[in-house]
Design a protein that fits this description.
The complex is a heterodimer of chains A (250) and B (267). Chain A has 250 residues and is of the alpha/beta class. Chain A has a single domain, classed as P-loop containing nucleotide triphosphate hydrolases (Rossmann fold). In chain A, 35% of the residues lie in helices and 30% in strands. In chain A, strands 6-9-10-3-11-12 form a six-stranded mixed beta sheet, sandwiched between helices. Chain A has a four-stranded antiparallel beta sheet with strand order 2-1-4-5. In chain A, α3 crosses α4 (121-134) and α5 packs parallel to α6. The longest helix of chain A is centred in the middle third of the chain and has 15 residues, at 99-113. Chain B has one domain. Chain B is mostly beta strands. The mean pLDDT of chain B is 93. In chain B, α1 packs across α2 (233-249). In chain B, the strands form two sheets. In chain B, strands 1-2-4-6-8-10-12-14-16 form a nine-stranded mixed beta sheet, with no helix packed on it. Chain B has an eight-stranded parallel beta sheet with strand order 3-5-7-9-11-13-15-17, with helices on one face. The chains are: A alpha/beta (250), B mainly beta (267). At the A-B interface, α2, β7 and α3 of A face α1 and α2 of B.
Chain lengths: 250, 267
């Protein structure tokens, strides 16, 4: 589904990713863990196509119409329309734009691209309310401006709501657990697990093992100094939880 | 309601107890009018008032909402003035909209002159090409427990130029006044210009007043967030512009007036 080969990337002249390799198949959930400053956030932004980050070398291939296609030349919106999704660590507030209007613009942009019929506001309202139930989100958020006057937990639920609306094939969840209390984390994890299928794949970026109790990964990677230094099963996350990162770095 | 004409000035008299039914449409351009609302009367009015001098008297408890649109061709200049005097517990809602011209100017004078009176004064400049618009507001609080809220916004494309002068004067006798003023500007062209000058003069000692001005460009984090959801850059920018003007448009309480603004802004 996603194949990252020898990826080097920098921001403002600082080299952050230094030869990252990662391959994710359909139906898999991967966790990427690492200490602060290891490049976790850069990793997610580079894959999403953030314009401030430069890809200096390597490829990011996404399966598009059954073909592995290098997406590094594509704009962020083109990547999203091809089924890539990033759940932001810090969701952005958009004053004046109602959440319902934003979600519908997003959904219809993807539909148009795939030659599917767009949804009118009335049908979309029913569609979105059903998705909000899964995340136990209050209806009032639909009329509020995007992420404005949302609590930290509500912002993270809103990210997963967007994921539920777009139903991506490849999603990266960037520290979705940060700023969440245990109850909110369970709700968010339930939302994510509901979206998990044999045909899509996810990468969960996290600092702590905690989230992985609720979203069970198939494979765990340790990111350090811009590359993957160790790959293992779910036990690797537990080992990190107990022993920290030091033993891996030495 | 009675209309009369004197010295080329239209006089609209709205008697006590009138409730707003239809929107009063003031004659286009070149209008000079006196609008007088008796105690407790309510009315809603609008007009394309590019060159105009409108005077409004709000007696006790009167409520008046006015939308003024200034329209000029790219080479044309015009100037409009609104003067309002408010008595006790009256409410004014004023909205000014222009897309600019060679020089499109507006002057607004409000005297909040009766205890408990409130004023909501809003404006929007949507400028492109090399058009200019200048709004000057002058709000004077002369009675206790009065309020004024001002929100002016501008969108400046190309080489356009938006100017805002806002003065709030709180007289010594106007204790417990609340006066707020905010001017926010979005510059979308590399050569767009904004001048903003908020002024606060307070002679009473127990008041709540604030003013502020902001000038910014399109927020790249917001653009990226929308793009990350499949919305292309152009559509994202247009959503953000709509969002920017939405909170000032939402200050218009009469739906027909809001629709009128939508018509003037066009697609």
């Amino acid at each position: 589904m996603l194949k990252i080969t020898d990826l080097y990337a920098s921001v403002a002249g600082n080299h952050i990713l230094k030869g990252l390799n990662l391959s994710v198949n359909a139906g898999e959930v991967h966790a990427v863990m690492g200490p602060n400053g290891s490049g976790k956030s850069t990793f997610s932004k580079v894959i999403a196509g953030h314009p401030q980050y430069t890809v200096d070398n390597g490829k990011v291939e996404l399966e598009i119409n059954g073909q592995m296609t290098d997406i590094t030349p594509m704009t962020p919106d083109a990547r999203a329309r091809e089924g890539f999704f990033l759940a932001f660590q810090y969701p952005v507030e958009i004053p004046g734009v109602p959440t319902s209007e934003f979600l519908r613009a997003s959904y219809n942009a993807v539909c148009r691209h795939h030659g599917l019929e767009e949804m009118d506001p009335i049908d979309f309202d029913g569609f979105i309310r059903a998705k909000m139930k899964i995340l136990q989100m209050d209806d009032k958020y639909i009329d509020r401006a995007v992420n404005v006057d949302f609590s930290g937990g509500e912002k993270k639920r809103n990210e997963i709501l967007q994921m539920a609306v777009l139903n991506p094939r490849m999603a990266i969840l960037d520290e979705t657990d940060s700023g969440l209390d245990v109850d909110s984390m369970k709700i968010v994890a339930h939302g994510v697990n509901t979206l998990r299928t044999k045909r899509n794949a996810m990468i969960v970026i996290t600092h702590y093992q905690r989230l992985l109790n609720y979203i069970k990964p198939d494979i765990v990677h340790i990111l350090y100094d811009g590359r993957i230094i160790k790959t293992g099963g779910p036990d690797l996350a537990l080992e990190v939880e107990n022993k920290g990162y030091d033993w891996l770095i030495k | 309601m009675t209309y009369e004409s004197a010295d080329n000035r239209l006089i609209i008299h709205i008697p006590r107890g009138t409730k707003p039914t239809d929107v009063i449409r003031l004659p286009d351009h070149g209008a000079a009018a006196l609008i007088h609302l008796e105690a407790g009367a309510e009315a809603v009015a609008t007009g394309v008032l590019s060159n105009s001098a409108i005077e409004v008297i709000l007696e006790d408890g009167a409520k008046f909402e006015l939308l003024r649109v200034a329209e000029e061709g790219p080479g044309g200049s015009c100037e409009s003035t609104l003067t309002v005097r408010q008595s006790r517990d009256s409410v004014l809602r004023s909205f000014y909209l222009t897309r600019g011209g060679r020089m499109v100017k507006d002057n607004l004078y409000v005297t909040v002159n009766g205890e408990g009176a409130a004023s909501f004064i809003n404006g929007l400049h949507v400028l492109s090409g090399d058009s200019q618009a200048e709004s000057r507001t002058h709000i004077e609080h002369t009675a206790p427990s009065t309020t004024s809220h001002q929100l002016y916004k501008s969108i400046v494309r190309d080489k356009a130029h938006s100017i805002f002068f806002g003065r709030i004067l709180v007289r010594r006798e106007a204790q417990l006044t609340q006066a707020y003023q905010l001017n926010k500007n979005l510059i979308l062209g590399p050569e767009g210009r904004v001048n903003t000058k908020p002024q606060l003069e307070i002679f009473a000692d127990d008041v709540k007043c604030s003013h502020g001005a902001a000038i910014g460009q399109m927020d790249e984090d917001q653009i990226f967030y929308l793009q990350a959801r499949g919305i292309d850059r152009e559509a994202a920018a247009s959503l953000l512009v709509q969002g920017f003007i939405q909170d000032v448009l939402s200050q218009i309480s009469h739906t027909a007036l809001r629709a009128e603004v939508g018509r003037h802004l066009g697609p």
